[in-house]
């Protein structure tokens, strides 16, 4: 085995459970808890050197495995079973190579466990590929983290041709021959990125809306958050089934921010329907109402996320060409692979949302493909705390054209961030609406965690 390749020696995983500080309404459901999947992988290179990589990710079953017929406990149990199968497969895998090579191969095998788990647990709603990607992502992250630590550098410095000899065509097909990943990923992070603060559907905007104060020292409503962090970017969760509510919610958020920041300030919105719009006509009417009521608020919309169903093949009639002429429209839940990216572009989507929870390997390959296709890119998190936030932030800071970062756990699950604050203080201390990403320099993608942090 070459000294620039590695193989897996041992795999370990564990779970952590947290209650949210305040619930998030997602897809019509109020979510108040999270289970983190933490992974450690020992690797070895051809010279006999060893290192241990770590990965962590929330098992976002409500997002990745939505079902009206299965309970939260059932979908979570299915994802835990996936973790068991994936850990076993990684442990048995004897292949060697760069983490992009290993990750690209093992991701396909991980997705293949969906049928086995569906049959094994007699699931009335089949386990979707997205859920497998989420479970696989901390294992994949641990491979990348371990590789950087083997070479005592940021993993982002190992995506060049001195380490990764294959071009993008090897992973993405003939159309990408001659393109190389290093040309679409920064070797060093941008030093700062704006923070997109989440305005959930249940979140109070004003003091009058605070029914039961939490009194934990953190802001209780949007106006306080704007001042507390100097916010400039807001991600607004919308309903998708109530035009009046959706339009009025954006206008209400804009009023609060205007009253707090003043009319001379500059700020931006992203709008997230979580695929609940019945059709593109709903989206167009919504945009018309917001623009007619408040043209300045409309002009602050930077992009719109996944307005309609995630299954693009089954929803080809809902093209986004007219909507994306008004505002960039990005796929999120739909983005599973290169095919889904290309279908989305054909349907008029102009951008894609990268997520660490879909895997470091996939995110980087699709980030390169999207840049080649001249698509808008953003990076979103899955209310990622601790190591998963460091992973997500690193992705945002190293992918060119990404304009901002998300860090929702500081609002909803701050307890899970506590052990990591001393290690990456810039990520957890928001000033002037921005995140300090200058410390995301490795080794690996996570760096060396605090001694007391047992992942």
Question: Summarize this, please?
Answer:
The chain is of the alpha/beta class. The protein is built from 16 helices and 12 strands.
Characterization of this structure:
It is built from 16 helices and twelve strands. The protein starts with 5 loop residues before the first strand and ends in a 19-residue tail after the last strand. Strands 4, 5, 6, 7, 8, 9, 10, 11 and 12 form a nine-stranded mixed beta sheet that branches. By secondary structure, it is of the alpha/beta class. The mean pLDDT is 95.
Spatial extent as radius of gyration: 21 Å
Structural class: alpha/beta
User: Quick check: average pLDDT?
Assistant: 95
Helix content: 25-40%
Share in β-strands = 15-25%
Query: What is the general shape?
Result: globular
What's the topology here?
Layout: E1 6-26, E2 29-45, E3 50-58, H1 61-64, H2 72-92, H3 99-111, H4 113-120, H5 129-150, H6 168-172, E4 192-199, H7 222-229, E5 233-237, H8 243-261, E6 268-272, H9 280-293, H10 295-299, E7 301-305, H11 321-324, E8 329-331, H12 338-346, E9 351-355, H13 360-372, E10 376-380, H14 386-398, E11 405-406, H15 409-412, H16 425-428, E12 434-436
Parallel strand pairs: 4-5, 4-11, 5-6, 6-7, 7-8, 8-9, 9-10
Antiparallel strand pairs: 1-2, 2-3, 4-12
Helix pairs in contact: 2-4, 2-5, 3-5, 7-8, 8-9
């Amino acid at each position: 085995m070459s000294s620039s390749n590695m193989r897996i020696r041992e795999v370990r995983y564990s779970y952590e459970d947290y209650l949210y500080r305040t619930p998030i309404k997602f897809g019509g459901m109020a979510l108040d808890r999270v289970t983190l999947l933490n992974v450690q992988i020992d690797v070895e290179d051809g010279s006999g050197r060893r290192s241990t990589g770590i990965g962590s990710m929330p098992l976002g079953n409500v997002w990745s495995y939505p079902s009206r017929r299965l309970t939260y406990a059932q979908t979570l149990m299915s994802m835990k079973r996936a973790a068991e199968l994936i850990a076993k497969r990684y442990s048995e895998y004897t292949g060697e190579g760069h983490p992009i090579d290993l990750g690209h191969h093992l991701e396909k095998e991980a997705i293949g466990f969906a049928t086995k788990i569906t049959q094994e647990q007699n699931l009335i709603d089949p386990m979707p590929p997205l859920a497998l990607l989420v479970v696989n992502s901390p294992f994949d992250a641990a491979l990348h983290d371990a590789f950087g630590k083997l070479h005592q550098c940021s993993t982002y410095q190992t995506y060049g041709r001195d380490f990764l000899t294959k071009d993008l065509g090897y992973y993405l097909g003939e159309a990408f021959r001659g393109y190389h990943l290093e040309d679409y990923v920064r070797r060093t992070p941008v030093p700062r990125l704006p923070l997109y603060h989440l305005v959930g559907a249940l979140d109070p905007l004003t003091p009058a809306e605070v029914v039961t104060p939490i009194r934990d020292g953190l802001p209780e409503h949007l106006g306080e958050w704007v001042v507390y962090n100097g916010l400039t970017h807001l991600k607004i969760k919308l309903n998708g089934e109530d035009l009046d509510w959706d339009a009025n919610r954006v206008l209400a958020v804009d009023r609060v921010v205007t009253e707090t920041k003043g009319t001379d300030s500059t700020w931006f919105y992203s709008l997230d329907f979580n695929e609940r719009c019945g059709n593109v006509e709903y989206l167009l009417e919504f945009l018309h109402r917001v623009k007619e009521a408040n043209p300045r608020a409309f002009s602050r919309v930077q992009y719109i996320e996944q307005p309609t169903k995630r299954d693009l093949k089954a929803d080809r009639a809902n093209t986004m060409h007219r909507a994306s002429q008004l505002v960039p429209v990005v796929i999120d839940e739909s983005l599973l692979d290169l095919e889904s990216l290309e279908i989305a572009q054909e349907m008029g989507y102009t951008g894609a949302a990268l997520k660490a929870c879909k895997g470091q390997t996939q995110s980087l390959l699709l980030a390169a493909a999207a840049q080649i296709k001249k698509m808008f890119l953003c990076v979103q998190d899955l209310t990622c705390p601790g190591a998963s936030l460091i992973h997500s932030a690193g992705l945002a800071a190293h992918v060119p054209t990404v304009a901002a970062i998300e860090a929702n756990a500081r609002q909803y699950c701050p307890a899970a961030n506590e052990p990591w604050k001393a290690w990456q203080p810039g990520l957890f201390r928001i000033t002037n609406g921005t995140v300090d990403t200058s410390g995301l320099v490795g080794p690996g993608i996570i760096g060396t965690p605090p001694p007391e942090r047992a992942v």
